Protein backbone atom coordinates (compact mmCIF):
# COMPACT_ATOMS: atom_id res chain seq x y z
CA UNK A 1 0.00 0.00 0.00
CA UNK A 2 1.56 3.30 -1.11
CA UNK A 3 -0.39 5.15 1.55
CA UNK A 4 -2.32 3.82 4.51
CA UNK A 5 -5.28 5.88 5.68
CA UNK A 6 -7.58 5.38 8.65
CA UNK A 7 -11.05 6.87 8.77
CA UNK A 8 -12.32 7.09 12.34
CA UNK A 9 -16.01 7.80 12.88
CA UNK A 10 -17.86 7.88 16.19
CA UNK A 11 -21.06 5.86 16.54
CA UNK A 12 -24.14 8.12 16.93
CA UNK A 13 -21.85 10.63 18.62
CA UNK A 14 -24.23 13.12 20.28
CA UNK A 15 -26.58 10.36 21.42
CA UNK A 16 -23.71 8.20 22.68
CA UNK A 17 -22.32 11.03 24.80
CA UNK A 18 -25.73 11.59 26.39
CA UNK A 19 -26.17 7.86 27.05
CA UNK A 20 -22.69 7.67 28.58
CA UNK A 21 -23.53 10.56 30.91
CA UNK A 22 -26.99 9.19 31.74
CA UNK A 23 -27.03 5.36 31.64
CA UNK A 24 -30.82 5.40 32.13
CA UNK A 25 -31.03 6.33 28.42
CA UNK A 26 -29.27 3.15 27.32
CA UNK A 27 -31.35 0.87 25.11
CA UNK A 28 -33.96 3.56 24.46
CA UNK A 29 -34.78 5.44 21.25
CA UNK A 30 -32.96 8.72 21.91
CA UNK A 31 -33.34 11.53 19.38
CA UNK A 32 -31.08 14.61 19.56
CA UNK A 33 -32.24 17.76 17.78
CA UNK A 34 -35.33 19.90 17.93
CA UNK A 35 -38.15 18.92 20.26
CA UNK A 36 -41.52 17.54 19.09
CA UNK A 37 -43.84 20.36 18.09
CA UNK A 38 -40.92 22.62 17.17
CA UNK A 39 -39.51 23.40 13.78
CA UNK A 40 -36.21 21.73 13.05
CA UNK A 41 -34.53 18.44 12.29
CA UNK A 42 -32.85 15.46 13.89
CA UNK A 43 -29.13 16.04 14.56
CA UNK A 44 -28.48 12.40 15.37
CA UNK A 45 -30.20 9.52 17.14
CA UNK A 46 -29.42 6.27 18.89
CA UNK A 47 -29.43 3.00 17.00
CA UNK A 48 -32.64 2.06 18.81
CA UNK A 49 -34.34 5.09 17.21
CA UNK A 50 -32.97 4.17 13.80
CA UNK A 51 -34.95 0.94 13.93
CA UNK A 52 -38.06 3.12 13.52
CA UNK A 53 -36.66 4.81 10.41
CA UNK A 54 -35.44 7.94 12.19
CA UNK A 55 -32.21 9.40 10.82
CA UNK A 56 -30.08 12.54 10.82
CA UNK A 57 -31.52 15.58 9.00
CA UNK A 58 -35.07 14.16 9.16
CA UNK A 59 -37.79 16.71 9.92
CA UNK A 60 -38.52 16.45 13.62
CA UNK A 61 -42.26 16.14 12.98
CA UNK A 62 -41.64 13.09 10.79
CA UNK A 63 -39.34 11.65 13.44
CA UNK A 64 -42.08 12.04 16.05
CA UNK A 65 -44.63 10.43 13.73
CA UNK A 66 -42.38 7.41 13.34
CA UNK A 67 -41.24 7.25 16.96
CA UNK A 68 -43.70 9.07 19.26
CA UNK A 69 -42.43 7.18 22.33
CA UNK A 70 -38.82 8.30 21.73
CA UNK A 71 -36.84 10.47 24.13
CA UNK A 72 -36.20 13.87 22.54
CA UNK A 73 -33.35 16.14 23.66
CA UNK A 74 -31.77 19.32 22.42
CA UNK A 75 -28.03 19.03 21.62
CA UNK A 76 -25.45 20.27 24.09
CA UNK A 77 -22.90 21.49 21.56
CA UNK A 78 -20.40 22.79 24.09
CA UNK A 79 -20.24 19.39 25.77
CA UNK A 80 -19.81 17.62 22.45
CA UNK A 81 -17.01 20.01 21.44
CA UNK A 82 -15.18 19.27 24.68
CA UNK A 83 -15.45 15.51 24.11
CA UNK A 84 -14.41 15.98 20.48
CA UNK A 85 -11.20 17.67 21.59
CA UNK A 86 -10.38 14.65 23.75
CA UNK A 87 -11.13 12.27 20.89
CA UNK A 88 -8.92 14.02 18.36
CA UNK A 89 -6.12 14.24 20.91
CA UNK A 90 -6.15 10.44 21.15
CA UNK A 91 -6.46 9.83 17.40
CA UNK A 92 -3.85 12.35 16.29
CA UNK A 93 -1.21 10.62 18.41
CA UNK A 94 -0.99 7.85 15.81
CA UNK A 95 -0.90 9.91 12.60
CA UNK A 96 1.72 11.87 10.73
CA UNK A 97 -1.13 13.96 9.28
CA UNK A 98 -4.70 14.25 10.59
CA UNK A 99 -7.65 15.79 8.74
CA UNK A 100 -10.55 16.67 11.00
CA UNK A 101 -13.83 16.33 9.12
CA UNK A 102 -16.26 16.97 11.97
CA UNK A 103 -16.48 16.82 15.74
CA UNK A 104 -16.69 13.04 15.54
CA UNK A 105 -14.80 12.13 12.39
CA UNK A 106 -11.26 12.27 10.97
CA UNK A 107 -8.88 10.89 8.36
CA UNK A 108 -5.49 9.78 9.67
CA UNK A 109 -2.43 9.16 7.50
CA UNK A 110 -0.58 6.37 9.32
CA UNK A 111 1.68 5.31 6.45
CA UNK A 112 4.92 5.98 8.33
CA UNK A 113 3.69 4.84 11.74
CA UNK A 114 2.10 1.60 10.49
CA UNK A 115 4.53 0.50 7.80
CA UNK A 116 2.11 -2.12 6.50
CA UNK A 117 -1.47 -3.34 6.81
CA UNK A 118 -0.77 -5.32 9.96
CA UNK A 119 0.68 -2.24 11.63
CA UNK A 120 -2.34 -0.19 10.58
CA UNK A 121 -4.60 -2.83 12.09
CA UNK A 122 -2.78 -2.56 15.42
CA UNK A 123 -3.11 1.24 15.38
CA UNK A 124 -6.83 1.00 14.58
CA UNK A 125 -7.44 -1.42 17.43
CA UNK A 126 -5.46 0.78 19.81
CA UNK A 127 -7.56 3.79 18.84
CA UNK A 128 -10.78 1.82 19.39
CA UNK A 129 -9.56 0.50 22.73
CA UNK A 130 -8.40 3.89 24.04
CA UNK A 131 -11.56 5.66 22.85
CA UNK A 132 -13.64 3.17 24.79
CA UNK A 133 -11.44 2.98 27.89
CA UNK A 134 -10.72 6.68 28.31
CA UNK A 135 -13.97 8.25 27.10
CA UNK A 136 -16.53 5.48 27.41
CA UNK A 137 -17.50 5.74 23.71
CA UNK A 138 -17.27 3.47 20.69
CA UNK A 139 -15.99 4.32 17.24
CA UNK A 140 -15.79 2.55 13.91
CA UNK A 141 -12.53 2.48 11.98
CA UNK A 142 -11.80 1.80 8.34
CA UNK A 143 -8.31 1.06 7.00
CA UNK A 144 -7.62 1.50 3.31
CA UNK A 145 -5.38 2.74 0.53
CA UNK A 146 -7.43 5.93 -0.09
CA UNK A 147 -9.71 8.39 1.68
CA UNK A 148 -12.85 7.20 -0.12
CA UNK A 149 -12.08 3.56 0.58
CA UNK A 150 -11.29 4.30 4.24
CA UNK A 151 -14.57 6.15 4.71
CA UNK A 152 -16.46 3.32 3.00
CA UNK A 153 -14.70 0.80 5.25
CA UNK A 154 -15.61 2.63 8.46
CA UNK A 155 -19.29 2.47 7.49
CA UNK A 156 -19.18 -1.22 6.66
CA UNK A 157 -19.50 -2.73 10.15
CA UNK A 158 -21.08 0.02 12.26
CA UNK A 159 -21.49 0.36 15.19
CA UNK A 160 -18.15 -0.36 16.94
CA UNK A 161 -16.85 -1.79 13.69
CA UNK A 162 -13.60 -2.42 11.89
CA UNK A 163 -13.04 -3.14 8.20
CA UNK A 164 -10.15 -3.16 5.72
CA UNK A 165 -10.06 -2.33 2.01
CA UNK A 166 -6.38 -2.82 1.07
CA UNK A 167 -6.49 -2.19 -2.71
CA UNK A 168 -8.61 -0.64 -5.47
CA UNK A 169 -9.46 -4.17 -6.59
CA UNK A 170 -10.89 -4.92 -3.13
CA UNK A 171 -12.89 -1.69 -3.24
CA UNK A 172 -14.41 -2.51 -6.63
CA UNK A 173 -15.21 -6.08 -5.55
CA UNK A 174 -17.10 -4.71 -2.54
CA UNK A 175 -18.98 -1.96 -4.37
CA UNK A 176 -19.54 -3.23 -7.92
CA UNK A 177 -23.17 -4.32 -7.51
CA UNK A 178 -24.24 -1.71 -4.97
CA UNK A 179 -26.49 1.25 -5.67
CA UNK A 180 -24.79 4.40 -6.97
CA UNK A 181 -25.73 6.12 -3.70
CA UNK A 182 -23.15 3.95 -1.96
CA UNK A 183 -20.39 5.96 -3.64
CA UNK A 184 -19.03 8.89 -1.70
CA UNK A 185 -20.38 12.26 -3.00
CA UNK A 186 -23.34 10.72 -4.86
CA UNK A 187 -26.31 12.40 -3.21
CA UNK A 188 -30.03 12.11 -3.81
CA UNK A 189 -30.26 14.58 -6.70
CA UNK A 190 -27.22 13.13 -8.49
CA UNK A 191 -28.59 9.62 -8.04
CA UNK A 192 -31.94 10.62 -9.55
CA UNK A 193 -30.18 11.90 -12.67
CA UNK A 194 -28.29 8.62 -12.97
CA UNK A 195 -31.41 6.53 -12.34
CA UNK A 196 -33.27 8.39 -15.07
CA UNK A 197 -30.59 7.27 -17.53
CA UNK A 198 -30.70 3.67 -16.43
CA UNK A 199 -27.55 3.90 -14.29
CA UNK A 200 -28.37 2.29 -10.96
CA UNK A 201 -25.26 0.46 -9.78
CA UNK A 202 -21.53 1.04 -9.60
CA UNK A 203 -21.18 -1.54 -12.38
CA UNK A 204 -23.45 0.61 -14.56
CA UNK A 205 -21.17 3.59 -13.97
CA UNK A 206 -18.17 1.55 -15.10
CA UNK A 207 -19.97 0.35 -18.22
CA UNK A 208 -21.44 3.77 -19.14
CA UNK A 209 -18.60 6.14 -18.30
CA UNK A 210 -19.17 8.45 -21.24
CA UNK A 211 -22.85 8.83 -20.39
CA UNK A 212 -22.05 9.64 -16.76
CA UNK A 213 -19.60 12.35 -17.81
CA UNK A 214 -22.09 13.84 -20.29
CA UNK A 215 -24.75 13.92 -17.59
CA UNK A 216 -22.65 15.31 -14.74
CA UNK A 217 -19.57 16.98 -16.24
CA UNK A 218 -16.61 17.22 -13.85
CA UNK A 219 -18.59 15.56 -11.10
CA UNK A 220 -19.21 12.68 -13.49
CA UNK A 221 -15.48 12.33 -14.13
CA UNK A 222 -14.88 12.11 -10.39
CA UNK A 223 -17.64 9.55 -9.90
CA UNK A 224 -16.35 7.32 -12.68
CA UNK A 225 -12.90 7.37 -11.08
CA UNK A 226 -14.42 6.34 -7.76
CA UNK A 227 -16.30 3.52 -9.47
CA UNK A 228 -12.90 2.04 -10.37
CA UNK A 229 -11.51 2.68 -6.89
CA UNK A 230 -9.32 5.60 -7.96
CA UNK A 231 -8.83 8.34 -5.36
CA UNK A 232 -5.38 9.88 -5.04
CA UNK A 233 -6.27 12.64 -2.56
CA UNK A 234 -3.94 13.09 0.38
CA UNK A 235 -4.88 13.60 4.00
CA UNK A 236 -4.74 17.38 4.49
CA UNK A 237 -4.95 19.13 7.86
CA UNK A 238 -8.09 21.22 8.15
CA UNK A 239 -7.58 24.97 8.41
CA UNK A 240 -10.49 27.20 9.47
CA UNK A 241 -9.62 29.69 6.73
CA UNK A 242 -10.25 26.96 4.16
CA UNK A 243 -13.94 27.11 5.00
CA UNK A 244 -16.06 29.04 2.52
CA UNK A 245 -17.83 31.00 5.22
CA UNK A 246 -18.51 31.42 8.93
CA UNK A 247 -22.15 31.88 9.83
CA UNK A 248 -24.99 31.44 12.29
CA UNK A 249 -28.71 31.05 11.74
CA UNK A 250 -31.90 30.46 13.68
CA UNK A 251 -35.26 28.97 12.79
CA UNK A 252 -38.33 30.57 14.33
CA UNK A 253 -41.02 28.36 15.81
CA UNK A 254 -43.61 30.62 14.17
CA UNK A 255 -43.16 32.75 11.06
CA UNK A 256 -42.06 36.33 11.71
CA UNK A 257 -43.64 39.33 9.98
CA UNK A 258 -41.96 42.04 12.07
CA UNK A 259 -38.79 43.02 10.26
CA UNK A 260 -37.62 45.13 13.19
CA UNK A 261 -37.48 41.91 15.19
CA UNK A 262 -35.38 40.36 12.42
CA UNK A 263 -32.92 43.25 12.67
CA UNK A 264 -32.73 42.73 16.42
CA UNK A 265 -32.04 39.02 15.94
CA UNK A 266 -29.27 39.93 13.51
CA UNK A 267 -27.46 41.67 16.37
CA UNK A 268 -27.18 38.39 18.27
CA UNK A 269 -26.24 36.41 15.16
CA UNK A 270 -23.55 38.97 14.31
CA UNK A 271 -22.08 38.60 17.79
CA UNK A 272 -21.87 34.83 17.30
CA UNK A 273 -20.17 35.20 13.91
CA UNK A 274 -17.73 37.78 15.28
CA UNK A 275 -16.72 35.47 18.10
CA UNK A 276 -16.08 32.50 15.85
CA UNK A 277 -14.07 34.59 13.38
CA UNK A 278 -11.87 35.97 16.14
CA UNK A 279 -11.41 32.54 17.67
CA UNK A 280 -9.62 31.49 14.46
CA UNK A 281 -8.02 34.90 13.75
CA UNK A 282 -10.07 35.23 10.58
CA UNK A 283 -11.88 38.05 8.88
CA UNK A 284 -14.27 38.17 5.94
CA UNK A 285 -14.38 40.28 2.82
CA UNK A 286 -18.12 40.04 2.48
CA UNK A 287 -21.34 39.61 4.46
CA UNK A 288 -24.21 37.35 3.43
CA UNK A 289 -27.80 37.46 4.64
CA UNK A 290 -29.83 34.26 4.40
CA UNK A 291 -33.62 34.07 4.64
CA UNK A 292 -36.10 31.24 4.33
CA UNK A 293 -39.67 32.41 3.87
CA UNK A 294 -42.80 30.73 5.23
CA UNK A 295 -43.24 28.79 1.96
CA UNK A 296 -39.67 27.35 2.24
CA UNK A 297 -38.37 29.57 -0.55
CA UNK A 298 -34.83 30.54 0.39
CA UNK A 299 -32.81 33.56 -0.70
CA UNK A 300 -29.33 34.92 -0.02
CA UNK A 301 -28.07 38.46 -0.46
CA UNK A 302 -24.42 39.53 -0.19
CA UNK A 303 -22.31 42.67 0.09
CA UNK A 304 -18.57 43.12 -0.34
CA UNK A 305 -17.19 44.33 3.01
CA UNK A 306 -13.36 44.22 3.07
CA UNK A 307 -11.63 43.33 6.33
CA UNK A 308 -14.83 42.64 8.27
CA UNK A 309 -14.77 40.84 11.61
CA UNK A 310 -16.74 43.11 13.97
CA UNK A 311 -20.29 42.39 15.10
CA UNK A 312 -21.35 45.98 14.45
CA UNK A 313 -20.22 45.94 10.82
CA UNK A 314 -21.71 42.48 10.24
CA UNK A 315 -25.03 43.64 11.71
CA UNK A 316 -25.07 46.91 9.79
CA UNK A 317 -24.34 45.28 6.44
CA UNK A 318 -26.81 42.46 7.02
CA UNK A 319 -29.43 45.04 8.07
CA UNK A 320 -28.95 46.96 4.82
CA UNK A 321 -29.43 43.74 2.89
CA UNK A 322 -32.58 42.99 4.91
CA UNK A 323 -34.01 46.38 3.97
CA UNK A 324 -33.81 45.41 0.31
CA UNK A 325 -35.57 42.05 0.33
CA UNK A 326 -39.21 41.26 -0.32
CA UNK A 327 -41.17 41.62 2.91
CA UNK A 328 -42.88 38.30 3.53
CA UNK A 329 -43.19 36.09 6.63
CA UNK A 330 -39.80 34.62 7.54
CA UNK A 331 -39.11 31.15 8.87
CA UNK A 332 -35.30 31.29 9.16
CA UNK A 333 -32.68 34.02 9.24
CA UNK A 334 -28.91 33.73 9.11
CA UNK A 335 -25.81 35.83 8.57
CA UNK A 336 -22.28 34.87 7.57
CA UNK A 337 -18.86 36.15 6.57
CA UNK A 338 -17.39 34.89 3.31
CA UNK A 339 -14.10 35.20 1.39
CA UNK A 340 -12.28 34.35 4.62
CA UNK A 341 -8.62 35.12 5.21
CA UNK A 342 -6.17 35.13 8.09
CA UNK A 343 -5.31 38.18 10.10
CA UNK A 344 -1.69 38.13 8.90
CA UNK A 345 -2.73 39.27 5.42
CA UNK A 346 -5.37 41.74 6.46
CA UNK A 347 -5.27 45.35 5.31
CA UNK A 348 -5.85 47.88 8.06
CA UNK A 349 -9.22 49.60 8.19
CA UNK A 350 -10.09 52.99 9.66
CA UNK A 351 -11.20 51.24 12.83
CA UNK A 352 -7.77 49.63 13.14
CA UNK A 353 -5.97 52.92 12.68
CA UNK A 354 -8.04 55.27 14.81
CA UNK A 355 -9.04 54.61 18.39
CA UNK A 356 -12.05 56.93 18.12
CA UNK A 357 -13.39 54.76 15.27
CA UNK A 358 -13.08 51.68 17.47
CA UNK A 359 -14.73 53.53 20.32
CA UNK A 360 -17.66 54.50 18.10
CA UNK A 361 -18.04 50.90 17.05
CA UNK A 362 -17.98 49.68 20.65
CA UNK A 363 -20.47 52.39 21.64
CA UNK A 364 -22.77 51.39 18.79
CA UNK A 365 -22.71 47.76 19.92
CA UNK A 366 -23.47 48.73 23.50
CA UNK A 367 -26.33 50.92 22.32
CA UNK A 368 -27.82 48.07 20.30
CA UNK A 369 -27.59 45.66 23.23
CA UNK A 370 -29.08 48.25 25.60
CA UNK A 371 -31.95 48.72 23.16
CA UNK A 372 -32.57 44.97 23.09
CA UNK A 373 -32.57 44.82 26.88
CA UNK A 374 -35.10 47.65 27.10
CA UNK A 375 -37.34 46.40 24.31
CA UNK A 376 -37.52 42.76 25.38
CA UNK A 377 -36.71 43.06 29.11
CA UNK A 378 -33.57 41.02 28.70
CA UNK A 379 -30.56 41.06 31.00
CA UNK A 380 -27.27 40.68 29.16
CA UNK A 381 -25.15 41.93 32.05
CA UNK A 382 -22.84 39.06 32.96
CA UNK A 383 -24.83 36.66 30.77
CA UNK A 384 -23.92 37.69 27.23
CA UNK A 385 -21.39 34.85 27.00
CA UNK A 386 -24.25 32.34 27.13
CA UNK A 387 -25.72 33.71 23.89
CA UNK A 388 -23.00 31.86 21.99
CA UNK A 389 -24.50 28.56 23.12
CA UNK A 390 -26.95 27.31 20.51
CA UNK A 391 -29.69 26.38 22.97
CA UNK A 392 -29.53 29.73 24.81
CA UNK A 393 -29.49 31.65 21.52
CA UNK A 394 -32.62 29.88 20.28
CA UNK A 395 -34.42 30.34 23.59
CA UNK A 396 -33.54 34.05 23.62
CA UNK A 397 -34.74 34.55 20.05
CA UNK A 398 -38.01 32.78 20.81
CA UNK A 399 -38.47 34.93 23.91
CA UNK A 400 -37.92 38.04 21.78
CA UNK A 401 -40.42 36.80 19.19
CA UNK A 402 -43.11 36.31 21.84
CA UNK A 403 -42.49 39.63 23.57
CA UNK A 404 -42.08 42.08 20.74
How would you describe this protein?
By secondary structure, this protein is α+β, with helices and mostly antiparallel strands. It has three domains: 13-77, MutS, DNA mismatch repair protein, domain I; 172-227, DNA polymerase, domain 1 (Orthogonal Bundle); 240-403, DNA polymerase, Y-family, little finger domain (Dna Ligase, domain 1), CATH 3.30.1490.100. 46% of the residues lie in helices and 21% in strands. It contains 17 helices and 13 strands. The chain has a five-stranded mixed β-sheet with strand order 5-6-1-7-8. Strands 9, 10, 11, 12 and 13 form a five-stranded antiparallel β-sheet that branches. Strands 3-2-4 form a three-stranded mixed β-sheet. Strand 2 (30-33) and strand 3 (42-45) form a beta hairpin. The chain is globular. Residues 344-350 have low confidence and may be disordered.
Amino acid sequence: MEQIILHVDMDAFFASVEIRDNPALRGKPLIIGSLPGERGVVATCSYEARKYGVHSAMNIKEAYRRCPHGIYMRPDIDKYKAVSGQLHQIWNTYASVAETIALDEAYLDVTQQAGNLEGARRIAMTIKRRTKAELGLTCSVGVAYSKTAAKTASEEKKPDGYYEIPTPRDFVALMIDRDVRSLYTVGEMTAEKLYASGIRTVRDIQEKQDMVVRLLGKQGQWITQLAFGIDERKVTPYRPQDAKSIGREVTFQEDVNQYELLKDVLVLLALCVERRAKRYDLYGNGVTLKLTYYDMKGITRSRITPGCDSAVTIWQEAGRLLDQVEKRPVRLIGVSLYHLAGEEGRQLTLEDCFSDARQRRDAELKARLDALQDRYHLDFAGHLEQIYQADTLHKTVEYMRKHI
